[in-house]
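Hi support team,

I'm filing this because I wasn't sure whether my run with flavin-adenine dinucleotide finished correctly. The job status page said complete, but I'd like someone to confirm that the output block is well-formed before I use it downstream. Pasting the exact inputs I used:
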Amino acid sequence: MAEVLVYVDHVDGAVRKPTLELLTLARRLGEPVAVHLGPGAEQAAKVLGEHGAVKVLAADAPEFADYLVVPKVDALQAAAQAVDPAAILVPTSGEGKEIAARLALRLGSGIITDAVDVEAGADGPVVTQSVFAAAFTTKSRVTKGVPVITVKPNSAPVEPAPAAGAVEELAVTFGELARGTKVVSRAARESSGRPELTEAAIVVSGGRGVNGAENFALIESLADSLGAAVGASRAAVDAGWYPHSNQVGQTGKSVSPQLYIANGISGAIQHRAGMQTSKTIVAVNKDPEAPIFDLVDYGVVGDLFQVVPQLTEEINSR
Ligand code: FAD
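And here is everything the job wrote out:
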């Protein structure tokens, strides 16, 4: 069976959820081979093996941390030469897309970015993208070289599928560009203690109806009662009530949690583009004609300043 390379997104060996989603998709195309760069390969291999990686190609060198993406591209190129894969899957992120684009150029391959689904086809992987604010879906196929595909977070379920996950060392020779862009400093963002927005199982969002930065405390309390991440509409972000890193939508992040609760959000197409694939959608809005109600599984017509605290209290009491 053909092997499929999966680029591992991790923090010191703690594998992030989008990589496990890629393993689900990779198994549809062949045998997943994970590529782990940096420290923590043994720790990562355990979870990668539990989710279907037959092998983990691992390389560790200071270059992966000290320089921007080129050393990682060198390593993926070495992995592609070692394995001759049927496809290479990379999580969609700023870094993931840059790695994928450079890699495709090196390999003389076609690339498809921001996939929301990948299936096996007679002539190679068939890739689904969601375009024009999710008004259309397109299916495409790479016709030249090894398909390089970046996949958006939350596009596939995480499925346990035990496999060997044996670590093999990947020999990497860095090219002359590898040390061309050095990292000068790194500062971790202050953690809210909440889950990462794109990986959270539950997202509680607030919009213009929240009516002020101080009132986002209500949204945060509801989120904390559920162990959820906090999202915001662009109107709330543009008003300066919540950071842009929490914006959901066409020009923000795409989320697809098990549960999405929209509070004081009208449901503009650009907001829907980032959340309409959520499994269960709940909206609280005082306007019964708000377009968000066309999308929801459960809708509450009411004032969020009454409904949200009641909901929080009820959940906390259980
Ligand atoms: P509104 O549309 O003003 O809706 C507020 C809602 O709150 C109303 O439905 C109202 O009934 C309700 N409400 C008010 N008070 C209460 C209350 N007390 N209790 C309950 N309900 C109440 N938007 C995004 O969200 N994400 C994006 O990424 C994004 N990208 C964009 C990209 C482009 C190119 C463009 C042109 C627009 C984009 N937008 C985006 C903006 C989008 O078009 C909408 O303007 C925005 O989503 C509206 O945000 P909102 O729903 O919070 O505000």
